[in-house]
Give the backbone structure.
Amino acid sequence: MPEVKIRKIITSIEEIFHEGGPRANTPLMRGYVMAVIENPYAGSYVEDIQPFMEDLKPLGLEMAQKLLAALGVEARQVEGYGKGAIIGTAGELEHGALWHAPGGYAMRDVLGGAKAIVPSTKKVGAAGVRLDVPVTHVDASYVRSHFDSVEVGLNDSPRSNEMAVILVMTTGARVHNRAGGLDAKDIKGEDGLR
Amino acid sequence: MIADIRKIAVWVEETHSEIGKSISPPTRKAVAVAVIKNPFAGAYTEDLTPLMDIGAELGGLLGHKCVAALGITPAQAESYGKAAMVGEGGELEHAAALLHPKMGAPLRIAVEKGAALVPSSKKMGGPGQVLDVPLGHKDAAYVRSHFDGIEVRMNDAPRAGEILVAIAVTDSGRPLPRVGGLAHAEAEGKDGLR
């Protein structure tokens, strides 16, 4: 079983006070944590890659806890989330798909059972590449005010034999949201959609 | 608060290994960014005093943000740096007014002491552009292991009428320093140089 070899961990918190409109009473926070790890399957095609998914679970949990701590809020104050992966050029896109289960379950675990699917994106890229990680409401995917994204990246990552795995959390709606649709206060929060 | 702040972002980068060698404890760099309205965008203004006062305010605010994000005491900070990127409606001198006259004193309170010059960089630029913040030892500029830098980049800043202001603080030097020179442990930290 390959072990997870971490080279770097980035934690980023953005506080948004306004975007040209009225100043928010409480700034919107958007945070992400990104771990740059060795890709055990870089270099050649490997058929059975699923063992690494198990190995990623503790890392996912550690990252989700780290991000929540960096936001400095209670778990219930996290209203949006997302995840992503960037695979270095000696790997393949499928390696990024290994992050789906460990990343998603780690956040649900730390946030106390969020209902909605965790939106995600992935790509193969070279060091310095940017990834726009999608964000949606944690309990009801159709909440329009919470559709957002957070741009992530690091100048020296991922190297060809690495991959970067990312978790994103936000504390609320877009700062000047006014495009209508399902409102967070009207959700049922049962099916993960509405 | 004099500055009209649209956003604050704080980023912490930990290096756990490099070129196959484990770094224990990991080296850590923090950078805090404020995106502010440029009060002088659009026309030439002779007296830049208000920007100097904003510089003082941000020196304390962003310095404290970095120290808090690293979870260290001010005395544990080892190196620092500052930089500003002015949106296209402003001029390079606006960055100088923010960075040079008054930013240093409150920053030095945030990191305790700080006998050395705070290394700096400045430029004009737009959203998505990279700003490299130089880093140097806070008490002895000749400490060779602490010459470094950290990159910041925000996809939506600075807009034409904004300035992106960054302060970086570390609790360590480069991950694997081995080019000699004055060492951290040997620095006297009296004259700011050695």
